[in-house]
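go over this record:
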Amino acid sequence: MSDLQLEVTNTEVKQTTLIGAPGDLGPDKIKDFTGAHVLECIPHSSLLNASVPGNNFGGIFGRGVGTGVGVRGLSTSGPGVMGETTTADAAGVLGQHGDTGVGVLGRGNPGVIGSCRTRQTTQPTRGVPHDNALAGVRGESVDGPGVFGEGRVGGRFTGTNAQLALVPGSGTGKPTTGHHIAGEIFMDSAASLFICVGTGTPGTWVKVMVAP
């Protein structure tokens, strides 16, 4: 096993381990280690070019071989991997797949937790956060369910104000266009509720009647 060297070709065929300890200093050490990170990689600011987005560089790139992971983070009592950003339109962590596979996979109990700790400063008129900005989890899809749940129960919801909120549609009455499948639920602008009982275009809908 050899030392990890920068700005040279590292040809070590075995695993190379980079270890830092408080007080490390010298040509065969890392640095005077007093911070929270053993290794920090920061591209020089001169590499940034706002007019050429391709000239923006990541700090670290990890590539796995075969079924090996590209990057692995391990911690005994804290997060294994942490992603953070200070730009409003950027994501702290981005998972992306080049084909039709899973962008992000979480395994655990639960597998994934989405948490929003930002409190609303004004009371919204309809009792829901504006543009769902304060949601713990948000799902989007261009041609499928925004969120899909599967299990003994497909979805379970609890809330202090209500367990579920449907955003009313723009018109009154049942849907009259598009393909729909049995089991869909639709609320129109008058807050009337319809259930699709037959798959088709536009499907067969019945109105939920509220007993007096």
